[in-house]
Automatic annotation (TrEMBL), chain A:
Record's bilayer topology term: Multi-pass membrane protein
Species assigned in the record: Natronococcus amylolyticus DSM 10524
Entry-linked SUPFAM superfamilies: MetI-like
Official protein name in the record: Binding-protein-dependent transporters inner membrane component
ABC transmembrane type-1 domain segment(s): 57-241
UniProt lineage: Archaea, Methanobacteriati, Methanobacteriota, Stenosarchaea group, Halobacteria
TrEMBL record, chain B:
UniProt protein name: Taurine-transporting ATPase
UniProt superkingdom: Archaea
Domain ABC transporter, residue spans: 2-229
Alphabetical keyword list: ATP-binding, Nucleotide-binding, Transport
Organism: Natronococcus amylolyticus DSM 10524
One Pfam match: ABC_tran
SUPFAM superfamilies: P-loop containing nucleoside triphosphate hydrolases (SSF52540)
Molecular function terms, GO-annotated: ATP binding; ATP hydrolysis activity
Amino acid sequence: MTERISVAGSGAVYPVSALCAGVALWWALTALGDIPPFLLPAPDAVVARLAGNPELYLVNALFTLEKVVYGGAIGIGAGIALAAFVAYVPWFRRAVYPYLVTVRVLPKLAIAPLLLIYLGTGMTTAIVFVALITFFPLVLNTAAGLDRTPTAHHDLLRSVDAGPIERILYVDVPYAIPDIFAGLKQSVTLAVVGAVVAEWVVADNGLGFLILMGSENVRPDVMLAALVVLLLVGLALYGIVVLVQRRVHERLGLETLD
Amino acid sequence: MIDLESVGVAFDEFTAVADVDLGIDDGEFVTVVGPSGCGKTTVLRAIGGLQEPTTGRVTIDGRSPSVAQEAGDVGFVFQQHTLLPWKSALENVVFLRKMADKPPDREGARALLETMGLDGFEDARPAALSGGMKQRVAIARAIHLGADVLLMDEPFGELDEITRDELGVEIRSLWRRERKTIVFVTHSVPEAVFLGDRCVVMCDRPGRIEATFDIDLPGPRDTESLGSGAFQEQVAAVRRTLHESYD
């Protein structure tokens, strides 16, 4: 056990050092360089901004998180549901799957202004946009995962007259788990991107809105402070998915590759 | 009693199996041997209800294969072990019985794994087992299902020869103990002769039964009998039939 901790510790030395070096470089640039603080504030100024008015950042982080959670839940749920249709309804797969693959090349961000016209400047637009952007990775990964069961397993279940529900629950879904998590990891990252973009377009509240306001008022310290919080939100969400993935993979005896 | 009455299977234009007549008594050990593509697997799948015959009919104890499936009377062992990678050996054995809606019997499954040389590996996942052990678990799973009929589709196809011989001896003694009806498909002539009391030889284009041999070997069958003169003669006879059909 001690050995594992020391290994983990030595593994963290490099990234932590790199982070410190990065912040030091940033600080040196502001202290020694000829950059005016209203263009690039020093790291301690950003920390001071955060510490000076934590409520502002916390409240807006919660607004952003709300969009991520509601939109993400809808997008992920819809993505898995549609993937099940793609995997198990042959005519539906043939009709829809080519478009699901094609739509991948469409930059989903470009849809946000359109949603603004259709849904207005409320929370709905942001939630729908986040749902839309998280939907695609889930649908494609899950559909591929549900296809992964070797055909001989299906023969085995047919030979004892087991029904499709049993087959899906006990065999297909566990086989699809790694792909579902791959989709979730992409989705959770995209959800934060989607929420910020929605906040730019809708301009109501949230960390994205704070960044937008900071930009209009030329306040890089506010923008950087909001970015730091945004980074923490994104990392926390991604971390939750990775933790759940580890637990599930452990139970299923699968290798966690990352 | 398994009964095939002029069974034919066609896929579009291609005739996989034509006009197969075969009767297998309860408790019989029948091997089906032939080259790749002769339709032996198709015949096995037709018996087990995984392939609907285009013509003719199959019955197991007078019932259609799908009715036998429903009753959990068809135990398949495939070339791939088809164990679920996230379940232990024991859980895999129990799983199929559960899927067949039969009451669970963990202790029975544990005892069975023990008699099959998997003592101490009950809780191991398939990834921790060798190829031979995985196939043992798959065989145990089919037996634990409680089916009267075991259908084996080249179950030793991916194993090395030494493991094949070992498992062959074991299958024979298992069959003597359990008194199941076994239909065993293989493309290995020695394996077919060693295992079967009756050996059905199939040929292709179209897939059909060329000949049937009653295999009579003196004494219990073990690795020693593989070297006996009687065994060699039977193997030679089956080979001759297979090659003659291509002349």
